[in-house]
Amino acid sequence: MRKRVNAGVGRLEFIEPLMPTLVDKPPEGDGWLHEVKFDGYRSQIVRDAEGTRIFTRRGLDWTSKYRDLAKAAAELEVESAIIDGEIIVLNDAGLSDFKALRKAITSRQHDLYFVAFDLLHLDGHDLRDMPLEDRREILAEMIPEGGRIQFSQALPGDAKAIFHLVDQAGLEGMVSKRKDSKYRSGSSTAWLKTKTFTIDEYELLGVEREAGKPAFALMAERRTGRYVGSAFITLNREMRERLWERVQGHAGPPPKGMKRPATQWVKPGLIGRVKHLRGEDDLRHASLQDFREES
């Protein structure tokens, strides 16, 4: 049973969040629990005698943007708390949808959810030195079912099987956490995130080639023309030669504001299929899989 203390706790302050380390594959073993990595805004609920506030990952007070969630947090049966979690919006398939999140914040507050996954403070007690499993057990007891604040359940099974299911479901990835870990702000290897990959089409802006270095394709969003990053060219020799032939045949000026001396720029019309980490605004760990001329 958790101890309750008088509500006369001083004003609670934002706590810098613990940030997971990105890894290529999830850790194995019984010492880890695994959760879905939601595609939303990392946020922190702070509740004390002065009211309820919701902060961004960097400590900005966005309570006014999350009015309905703040109201839901104020209804939790606690006197003071600091809850770590993610603010999300769900699409028709029940998956978190980052693109819809910004619109929901401004015009569809009723679509916002706060997915809680850690408890840093409760009723005058700092819980960060407690094992993660114990913190989460208390957190699960606090959160009623069916509300705007939901508890992030651990996924049953071994890490490899869980990651396969997460990938097949089209989710962004998973976060693995040491069950006995304490909460420490900043980057940590006690929490590890493993992301899934997806393939999308982008406009090819140019190819960057420097002697002795791998070649990269510079890519942009097809609809907006916004530069999103570079993709390692993993094509076989025949396709690389065909790509370079097309690039030289479509040579054009650099996009406005872009200066990369080792790049052969191309006119609009070449489309590349790029494999990249799911759930990122820009390309990360990206590779060019194929290309075609726009029809």
How many helices in DSSP terms? Answer: 5
Oligomer: single chain
Identify low-pLDDT runs.
Answer: 1-8
- Tell me the Rg in angstroms: 23 Å
How many strands, which pairing sense, and closed or not: the largest β-sheet? 6 strands, mixed
The number of domains: 2
The CATH topology of the largest domain, please?
Answer: D-amino Acid Aminotransferase, Chain A, domain 1
The CATH superfamily of the largest domain is DNA ligase/mRNA capping enzyme
How would the blueprint of this fold be written?
Elements: E1 18-23, E2 32-37, E3 41-48, E4 51-56, H1 67-74, E5 81-89, H2 98-107, E6 112-122, E7 125-126, H3 132-142, E8 149-151, H4 159-168, E9 173-178, E10 186-195, E11 197-208, E12 216-220, E13 227-233, H5 237-249, E14 263-265, E15 270-277, E16 287-293
Parallel strand pairs: 1-10, 6-8, 13-16
Antiparallel strand pairs: 2-9, 3-4, 3-5, 5-6, 6-7, 9-10, 11-12, 11-14, 11-15, 12-13, 15-16
What does this structure look like?
The protein is an alpha+beta fold and 295 residues long. It folds into two domains: 18-195, DNA ligase/mRNA capping enzyme (D-amino Acid Aminotransferase, Chain A, domain 1, 2-Layer Sandwich); 197-293, OB fold (Dihydrolipoamide Acetyltransferase, E2P). 18% of the residues lie in helices and 37% in strands.
